[in-house]
Fold:
Amino acid sequence: MKICVVGLGYIGLPTASMFADHGHDVVGVDKNPAVIKALNEGKIIIEENHLDELVRRVVEKGSLRGSSVPEAADVFIISVPTPITEDKRSDMAYVVSATESILPYLKKGNLVILESTSPVGTVDTLMVPILEKSGLKIGDELFVGHSPERVIPGQILNELVNNDRIAGGINDASARKITELYKTFVKGNIYETDSRTAELCKLSENTFRDINIAFANELAKICENLGINVWEVIELCNKHPRVNIHQPGPGVGGHCIAVDPWFIVEKQPDTANIIHLCRDTNDSMPGYVTGRIDQILKDVENPKVAILGVTYKPNVDDMRESPIIKLEALLRAQGIEVAAYDPFVKGKAGITNDICEAARDSDLLLLGVHHDQFKELDFEALGKIMRHKNFFDTRNFADRARAEAAGFEYHLLGKN
Structure:
């Protein structure tokens, strides 16, 4: 079977590679020439565990290749970004463009699957009217649906195979065809439903997590006001057999949790009150952390802050919707000099891969992301090149005893 995957990002490329590794002829389509050039050389330009090995293998085998335009195929998978606008509404331009791009290549019996996370109704009210221009009868001659991914960066290949999946069709026949396709490599269960239910399931899964993180962040603020350590509160609460409070932090990032709840709010603005409030709570955390930094540095002239970690989660290079980037912008807007260090981010302006370069002459080290290597920071060496030895841990991750032994004043989010 020939499969055309439109969009070769963090989800599209692993998905295309997985199908190619399981007996299908796959062409991957992307508008970025660098992506296509790298792919056809058997290389990748993103970081993901073992993806480079998989891509090299399937490209060398001839089962995966890149193209700047779609081709005729049996299955079309759309996996393009669905960002939000400044006013927190979905930007569906990429989905529209991708759907229109495959129109000339559609034929009777084709299957079109949207993998991109989208507001409810995207398949049946946005994509279907475009696909009807093909002249094919939707649900009878052209099968359409939504099958969202459920993966986490760093574990994408493993979770593509082993996680359960939803096959949402515009009719039963479409759902069945989606199931049969993904059975190619999915070992988890595949549950069939309609496309709108599948769309809301994906949004709800990430909104559930966002709401729980918002509770943890609000609890952190409460604990600071009451002089209580939120991390101890959470640890003790979670010893209850039916309680699992999430962890607070400087905000929520990534293309899923920080974005998907807004897609629900967009469709139901008068009803999704809790969802909206929780999104506002999590979006407020960079500003809240900025306020804490102002307190720590209130007596320092022309302060410099060195930020450790800028990605949206630990041990990956993904900076999409990172709250640390927003925090950095807020600090700069206040006239604070900012230096950023992240061992996973290469070649980005303003981000160094030398921790000493970032820390030199700084007045505060701020731990923004709990990368594994930050567990063993050399506080003695860092303290010698700083002007003031302040350390602000927003993740309750660093070794406080070692920091204080090196003369640092240790500050913790969720505890004053």
Remarks:
- The chain has 16 helices and 14 strands.
- The mean pLDDT is 96.
